């Protein structure tokens, strides 16, 4: 072979080797710690975007080779927590995180992803695999050493006791608030929750019943319990909070409230999409957008059974950073049809996730598929912008909700024009 031909052949072969090398060389170092190494392996095997793995492997290498605090078989739990959080953050993707059984998110995600973790579900939640925890029906955000109530599930114990979004949680039965530990083994009993409603004001003691809560049924009950009417200028304005689409009965609860429940006579509807989790069918918005007429099935006894529902009256939707995943598709579909959105930009979290059980029984949620609307519309990292921007500050809100008030006012204006 002439030298120049050989050189061209060798150069082309070298380019092929270089091009293939990154995929072959992506071999992250092992730490010897089973939880860390299993999380790394799952990302390498399952994560949806291979182009981000090189950066991920470099993040793993830094954690394992850190001279000050290397991750190894003897690393304390706190070090492993921080290291896994760091390497997952390097992926810059939604639906990607680790959740421990000391938080409410763990139980809610375990119920949402129960099929994905079916091999472990009975062991994690004996004896029958029914996901449940003792709680009072609220979620809270932690920052600067303080806990503030972010979500009060409609119809739950905290809502019935008068706890409000924005309340600072000072203690539960005299001890610092812990999402799960504060209520462990207390189902059927009451606890004293001390809250502060305004900065610098006296603490308020609240007696709250502790219940055994099953996440998805709790969401369905909250959706159903949120439905109500409010009179403005002679018009009946309905409101319902769609906490999640992940529960099989979520949209059924909405449809029942509209067709047969408290919202049946509403002149217009405020649909609250400021949820906890997305999930669900991508065509859920068809209840408000579909062209198929409503119909019922009527049996021999004359009893009618809902077969489908279509809402034809005005709608205004509420969105914020809790509007994620399937709820973002919902919000996007509404906006595309000219339905006003009120609030702040949605989460920009539209990938398909799955869950895996790590050796310490924590859950790894991992983005396993990209998600595209239409031909090329991606909401991941972008979200959906509101038509009417209304900020909301959580701490010490005392139950005030300027976003909801703005949505009701927008509906009032719409009805006044019609």
Looking at CATH, the homologous superfamily of the largest domain is 2-enoyl-CoA Hydratase, Chain A, domain 1
What is the CATH C level class of the largest domain, in words? Alpha Beta
Architecture (CATH level 2) name of the largest domain: Alpha-Beta Complex
The main sheet orders its strands as 9-10-11-14-15-18
Distinct helical segment count? 12
The global form is globular
Helix content: 25-40%
Tell me the fraction of residues in β-strands, as a range.
Answer: 15-25%
Task: Could you tell me the CATH topology label of the largest domain.
Answer: 2-enoyl-CoA Hydratase, Chain A, domain 1
Low-confidence regions:
1-24
Query: Termini distance?
Result: 85 Å
Indicate the structural class: alpha+beta
Number of domain modules: 3
Mean pLDDT: 91
- Give the H and E element order: HHHHEHHEEEHEEEEHEEHEHEEEHEEEEH
Strand elements, count: 18
Our Rg estimate from Cα atoms comes to: 25 Å
Main pleated-sheet profile: 6 strands, mixed
Question: What features would you describe in this structure?
Answer:
The chain is α+β, with helices and mostly antiparallel strands and 418 residues long. The protein has three domains: 17-92, no CATH class; 133-213, PDZ domain (Pdz3 Domain); 215-350 and 369-417, 2-enoyl-CoA Hydratase, Chain A, domain 1. The chain is built from twelve helices and 18 strands. The strands form five sheets. It has a six-stranded mixed β-sheet. β9 and β10 (235-241) form a beta hairpin. α2 (34-46) runs parallel beside α4. The longest helix has 23 residues, at 3-25. 39% of the residues are buried.
């Amino acid at each position: 072979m002439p030298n120049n031909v050989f050189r061209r052949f060798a150069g082309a072969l070298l380019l092929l080797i270089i091009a293939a090398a990154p995929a072959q060389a992506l071999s992250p170092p092992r730490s010897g710690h089973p939880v860390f190494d299993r999380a790394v392996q799952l990302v390498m095997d399952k994560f949806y975007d291979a182009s981000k793995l090189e950066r991920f492997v470099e993040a793993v290498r830094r954690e394992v080779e850190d001279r000050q605090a290397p991750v190894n078989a003897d690393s304390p739990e706190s070090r492993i927590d921080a290291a896994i959080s760091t390497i997952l953050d390097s992926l810059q993707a939604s639906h990607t995180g680790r959740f421990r059984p000391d938080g409410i998110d763990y139980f809610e995600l375990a119920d949402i992803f129960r099929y994905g973790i079916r091999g472990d579900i009975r062991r994690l939640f004996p004896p029958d695999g029914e996901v449940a925890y003792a709680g009072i029906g609220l979620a809270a955000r932690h920052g600067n050493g303080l806990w503030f109530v972010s979500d009060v599930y409609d119809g739950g114990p905290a809502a019935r006791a008068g706890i409000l979004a924005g309340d600072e949680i000072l203690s539960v039965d005299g001890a610092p608030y812990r999402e799960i530990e504060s209520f462990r083994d207390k189902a059927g009993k009451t606890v004293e929750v001390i809250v502060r409603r305004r900065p610098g004001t006296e603490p308020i003691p609240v007696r709250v019943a502790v219940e055994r809560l099953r996440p998805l049924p709790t969401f369905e009950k909250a959706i159903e319990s949120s439905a109500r009417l409010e009179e403005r200028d002679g018009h009946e304005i309905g409101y319902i909070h769609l906490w999640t689409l992940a529960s099989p009965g979520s949209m059924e609860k909405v449809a029942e409230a509209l067709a047969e429940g408290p919202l049946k006579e509403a002149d217009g509807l405020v649909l609250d999409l400021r949820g906890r989790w997305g999930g669900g069918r991508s065509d859920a918005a068809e209840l408000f957008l579909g062209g198929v007429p409503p119909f019922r099935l009527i049996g021999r006894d004359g009893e009618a059974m809902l077969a489908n529902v279509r809402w034809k009256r005005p709608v205004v939707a509420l969105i914020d950073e809790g509007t994620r995943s399937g709820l973002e598709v919902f919000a996007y579909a509404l906006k595309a049809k000219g339905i006003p959105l009120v609030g702040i930009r949605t989460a920009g979290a539209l990938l398909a996730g799955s869950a895996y059980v790590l050796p310490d029984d924590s859950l790894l949620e991992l983005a396993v598929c990209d998600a595209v609307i239409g031909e090329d519309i991606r909401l991941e990292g972008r979200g959906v912008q509101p038509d009417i921007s209304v900020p909301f500050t959580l701490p010490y809100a005392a139950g005030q909700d300027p976003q909801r008030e703005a949505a009701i006012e927008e509906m009032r204006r719409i009805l006044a024009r019609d």
